[in-house]
Amino acid sequence: MRLEKRHRTSAAAYVAAPVGAVAFTLLVSALLVLWAGAPVGRTYALLAQGAFGSVFALTETLTRATPLILTGLAAAVAFRARLFNIGAEGQLYAGAIAAVAVGGMHGGTDLEWSPWVLFPLMLLAAALAGAALLLGPALMKARLGVDEVVTTLLLNFVMLLLVSALLDGPMKDPLALGWPQSVALQGELELSRLVTGSRLHTGLLIAVGLAMLLWALLARTVPGFDIRAAGANPRAAAFAGVPVTRTVVLVALLSGGLAGLAGAIEVAGRTGYVTLDMSPGYGYSGIVIAMLAGLHPLGVVVAGIFVAGVLVGADSMSRAVGVPTYIADVIVATSLIAVLVAGLLAQYRVRWK
Amino acid sequence: MSAPPPAAAPDTVLRLSGITKRFGSLVANDGISLTLARGEVLALLGENGAGKSTLMSILFGHYVADAGSIEAFGRPLPPGQPRAALAAGIGMVHQHFTLADNLSVLDNVLLGSEPLWQPFSRRSAARARLLEVAQRFGLPVVPDARVGDLSVGERQRVEILKALYRGARILILDEPTAVLTPQESEALFATLGQMVAEGLAIIFISHKLGEVLRVSQRVAVLRQGRLVAQAPAHGTTQAQLAQWMVGHAVERAERRPARQVGAAVCTVDDVHTGGGRDALHGVHLTLRAGEITAIAGVSGNGQGALADVLCGVRMPVQGQVMLRGQPLPAHPQRLVAQGVARIPEDRHAVGVVGDLPVWENAVSERLGSRWFSHPWFTAGWIKRGRARQHARRVAETFDVRGGGPDVPARSLSGGNMQKLILGRALMSPEPASPDTPRLIVAHQPTWGLDVGAVRFVQQQLIDARDAGAAVLLISDDLDEVLQLGDRVAVMHGGHLTEALPTQAWTREAIGLAMAGGIPGAAGAGQGLGAAGTEPARDMS
Fold first, then answer.
1. Number of residue pairs across A and B with CB atoms under 8 Å?
2. Closest CA in chain B for residue A238
3. This model's pTM is above 0.90
């Protein structure tokens, strides 16, 4: 078996690739569902219903999608510039901690700032914290050639331990009966509900707005051109006059900032305080979502909702038919592999023999 | 990898019959039939994209032909198996060497030729065999020398030995002279003679017509995937070969002497750069308006560093470059804004960002940091309509074909990509005020292009010169240097000779200077006496 590059990728292949990928994913997952002894059709129906079937399901899915969209954007912009930021998880926690530090730590002091000042300050602090965490690895990559995959990945664990220390130390909530959780954010800094009676908050609008802004930046502006050029071919970009190092730093600030915002918005929109399990791997899922979206910011919104839907839908489905919720992880992982392979097959043809 | 038995039919060692290969709608090889005889050099001639590489890839088992068959030494060659091709005695010497720099010559030759499960390599036997092969074919080597320390000519020798060591009886040489000095090429031709005398058969791939006629007995010409002509080399003229290659009569770019040489536009004064082999060591050069200064030399002797400095992507560690009395700006886009047109050596890796569309590549050099009042962007926001329009104008003026402004630049052919780069460099962003560039830095601008594109590019350089630009042409191709240069300087080991009028040079003198000798024409070449800072690496 061999791969030969196609002379030109046909338009039909571009359509067939994602459709084929989804079909393949459903097929593979169906085998596992059968193995678990559940009816395939009903399982999928329940999964879809649990994700999108009611107002409640839909709000739950969109609530889950909010941080996923932000970490997906963080990964997408970084990967566009070939800055492989695997550290969105740590940056998310850094943002969450910074948000609480700004918006929750001065209870009982004389500081009386209007939420109109404090709220933007809180988001800014979160973005800066996430950005600062990625700046070091980015500079080390640009200046010294240090592999950012290793540094950003390892910083996740450093960050988790730091958060753990903070939650047991200076940021510990005295009212939490010994649970490692931070002091709570001031009530007036919390994001308002989009749908009353649900958990869906205005963070979703922020995430979608940032996706559109990021798309405009990448597609329509000179810095966006710099990012795409520096990622696709740094030598040619430098020859054309793109400031490659400066661009990598800019991308690091953007990517880390978006991941940091994910943390702040989770705190302000959902949890209200920081715990060590507030993110079930949103930072890592962001990578999957960015790849599913082909690194397109608007695609990230769709992919984020898809992944969130599978996760939320699987929860309710498993209660009904007894297929473990891990099927959600299988579906997400398989769809990523399928999309990547389908993208490859759109560009190459397979020759047997 | 035992040597194949002598063929039953005495003469024909290789027979390609009706080889056809399609990539989608493109027919890369269209029913090609060729034979190769023992003791024969067959030249395979054709422009880029004519199907030479595809044919050789099929022969070597990298591709599977859609139709046709191959017979080596009277036996059919199974398709799609490089191993089978090797076992049948077919060896290939690639244009870009496939050697490990950090290993010795012997290690490189042995690499991959020994079974994995054999715990120790049988080095003494291998060394004896290598020396025996080297002697038989007249390719002297030092088995323990590190490949990284060898000259380009010596490395090529190792590549050839690698193939011969594995029992190659049919040798394919892909553009073997592209990286050699004239003297090194002569040595290679002598070796080829010895190899065919030993009974080898050689396929010699080239686009240099002169050397094709010199070394081969027979010439086969490919055009658009078809075998359009086969002729004995004796009695065939270069003009005829060129006509077969292109399909119509070819005129060369018109060689006109510089009309009016003006003031110095750019002066390079005692420039040194860091960076190993390709560094500059005290280069002086003056580029005058209305004149083409051509730099000859084997690539890798500092040409890259000189071009980088003049293109604003590398800073000298010592010395100064002045552009019209001012220090040369150290930033590509400011350089471009001051009228420097830059054509880089490697169009795929440096010239364009292949994944981005043609229109973005057409404006990339001028998407600067000037935030206001630019025809293509306002406050960082790209005016896509205007930029596309400019790209369309570049494509029209410079005849860039292949899909319009929105296809990725990667999909352009080499010639069209080079025209795009040329148009980007030479065309002013304001259609109303077409100012010509003041300085053109062209590094290997015609490398790998087909005859028509070569002529186009050369003509553009000549026209720009006549319009008053100072042109620096850096080229491996001695014919191009002599044809276009008003003055010629030679580069070796990071030193540059004085730029003398082209008439003052002989080919021999240039060849000598390329190898690091004292230029016969000048006698007082700039800084050549300091060549002792590096170990001598010439092979002649």
1. 86
2. B313
3. no
